[in-house]
Amino acid sequence: MFNIKTDLSNKLKYFRKLLILGFILIMLFSGCKKDTEFSFPEKPITLLVYTGPGGLIDVTARKFVDIANKYTDATFVVENKPGSGGIVALKNMLQKPADGYTLLASTKSNISKIVATGADTFIEDIDWAAMMMADPECIITYRQSNVNTWEDLIADAKAKNGKQIWLGPANGGLDHVTALKIWDKAGISAKWIPYTSGGKAIAALLGEQGVAYVGNPREVLGNDDLQIAAVSSAKKLPQFPNVPTFTELGLTDLENEYMWRGFVLKNGVPESVRQWYNELFKKVNADPEWRKYWERGGIDVKYADNNDFTQVVQRDKQDFTYYLSKLGIINTEADSFMAKLASGNTFRLLVMILCAIFLIIWLLIWRSQTKSWLNGILLPLFFIFLSLIFYLLSFTFPSNEDVGPAIVPRLWIFILIPLNLVLLVSILIKKEEIIKTTGSSKSVFKFVALLVLYLLGIHFLGYFISTFFFLIAGILLLGYKNIKMTFIISACWLLFSYLVFYKLLYVPLPQGLILEMLF
């Protein structure tokens, strides 16, 4: 018995020693792990830019890397991911792990695009790490024009009674929304003509195709033909001492209209990594070379941390939601009877009724042995039925603009319905001839499958590629055998779409997810 107790006591002492040793090892290794947490980064950091090389945000990102090299040994790799106003680059960042190795250079224009595309949830998925500068919005005029001062603009606007033309990049972008705010405060109205870039809009201003361009002060540097009529800042800019602020001109609440630029991370980045970035952002923002480079263009080099930056973004989201809704670019409320019908339970019930009617007709024709020619009417009936559904759905699209997202589906509808009605009449008139040539009702389901593939194709490959193959397949499925003419018809439609919708009417045709990721 004594030996058993002694042996047990020795084992307990040995076990206690093991526990102590294990505790010591845990403390040692936890200390080492703590050190490695602060060894970030251990590999290159990808800095995403949502425009091509040469854009101002691209210059900002590369200048940041240049200045950051003074304060860290980290390697930054700038990667341009243009497409969809920043959505492509943003999605790319959000698809990466939240480890801090992917950083995105962002601007206020991204908020406009996020709101316009209904991707508001992205705002909550982003860690708004740091705002680095505020570039004030301003009105730029052509010095040689008879309308070049603020007083001239007001007098001209009242004389033209809403027909005065202002220029800038993008419809519904930051500059456009700023113009709307200015018009509201000044009690005037004007027309906004969007261009694909600020450079093209300035060229149009110099060609006197409009009287005002909304942009930023640095855009007049080096061009004596341009002058600033008014600027959105709390006080006069030292670089432009003769330029009045909106407050001085009697317009209140316009002193904080600016294009911010900053950097964002994916939500969930470890706190130690965020602190590393915070310190780096502060050092770069306080660097004399950084400040001098941007301040010479009238930019306010001010730093905002995550909390303040997030509040700025939330205010911007509210502003863009209001004005884009006012422009009809987004729908926050369905006002019309048709819009309410298309977005409510009544629409779902109507679709179910139409589906039931179509199925009943199909079953009756399928079971009929004496009226096989009726198989031919299934295809036009299906497309008429489908066109009615899409027509109703188009009322949920923005409708306050003369040209908007609803124009493309409605154009197809207005073409499809008359054509299919003509086809129905033709079948009824020539039913005896059609009996010999009409195929089975399987052709209907081939078209349904083709349509599904087309819709998927638009999402992944974009409008142009998908439409080209859809038209070819559809024409061949209808029995047209002239391959050469089929290609010509399809190509002509794409050319028409590009020149009229894309270039003339500025309808944003889908580029496709795969192409956006690749290019």
Describe this structure in words.
- It is a single chain.
- The chain is α/β, with parallel strands linked by helices.
- It has 20 helices and ten strands.
- It folds into three domains: 45-135 and 259-327, D-Maltodextrin-Binding Protein, domain 2 (3-Layer(aba) Sandwich), CATH 3.40.190; 138-256, Periplasmic binding protein-like II (D-Maltodextrin-Binding Protein, domain 2, 3-Layer(aba) Sandwich); 337-518, no CATH class.
- Strands 2-1-3-10-4 form a five-stranded mixed sheet, with helices on both faces. A five-stranded mixed sheet has the order 7-6-8-5-9.
- Strand 6, helix 7 (174-186) and strand 7 (191-195) form a beta-alpha-beta unit.
- It starts with a helix and ends with a helix.
Count of individual domains: 3
The count of helical stretches stands at 20
Shape: globular
Please report the total strand number as a whole number: 10
Stretches where pLDDT is under 50 for at least 5 consecutive residues are: 29-37, 398-404, 434-440
Question: Widest sheet: strand order?
Answer: 2-1-3-10-4
Summarize the main sheet.
5 strands, mixed
Rg is 31 Å
What is the CA-CA span between the terminal residues?
82 Å
Protein structure class = alpha/beta
Question: Oligomer, anyone?
Answer: single chain
